[in-house]
């Protein structure tokens, strides 16, 4: 039996409940054997934003996924260096297995809308199928399939939350408890992240 692996790339600055619900729902609905969270090294489309250092995002992502035996973290994007391209992510994750695996790239509706801007997208689309999740304010159906994307649309309980909102809440002194896991909230507090 070829194992079905979900690859969930994200900047995870910080990881929040929307990410965890998306991964869990994708795993359940698509019978995934494992979901690999891959924090970006250098998210090139976020160069206009201040992104938290990779070790902190990695530590938060590890702590967020640790309780779920179906989830693990790969550091491949952080270790590779240079701009993070999903086409490299999936090649590196594939290389982490000794056996043949069927890779599914988990993606929110907002990212799916921008898929046509991704590096070597046709090659990426040959390498993986996409599991696309609804995200408030974004239509999942607007995907340009001319480059061959194979997309399965999954409905998850809508989580109207972003890392941006979490960062803004911390900056403004508002709570993020219950929007992120307790260990992530503790990490943010103890390391003074997002205080502006
Ligand atoms: N609430 C959500 N519901 C569904 N998908 C989500 C949600 N939040 C993030 N995602 C998806 O998770 C992946 C990683 O997202 P990312 O780490 O950039 O989080 P974000 O909340 O979009 O961050 P930011 O606000 O900093 O842009 C993307 O594919 C994104 O579409
Ligand atoms: O391959 C690309 O060119 C590309 C461009 C933008 C985003 N991505 C990937 O999309 C995932 C979510 O990225 P982000 O920046 O929305 O956190 C992550 O795995 C990124 O590497 C990939």
TrEMBL record:
Domain Cytidyltransferase-like: 7-169
Listed GO biological process terms: NAD+ biosynthetic process
GO molecular function, one term: nicotinate-nucleotide adenylyltransferase activity
Keywords: ATP-binding, NAD, Nucleotide-binding, Nucleotidyltransferase, Pyridine nucleotide biosynthesis, Transferase
InterPro entries per the UniProt record, alphabetical: Cyt_trans-like, NadD/NMNAT, Rossmann-like_a/b/a_fold
Listed pathway(s): Cofactor biosynthesis; NAD(+) biosynthesis; deamido-NAD(+) from nicotinate D-ribonucleotide: step 1/1
Membrane-spanning ranges: none
Function: Catalyzes the reversible adenylation of nicotinate mononucleotide (NaMN) to nicotinic acid adenine dinucleotide (NaAD).
Protein family: Belongs to the NadD family.
Protein known as: Probable nicotinate-nucleotide adenylyltransferase
Gene from which the chain derives: nadD
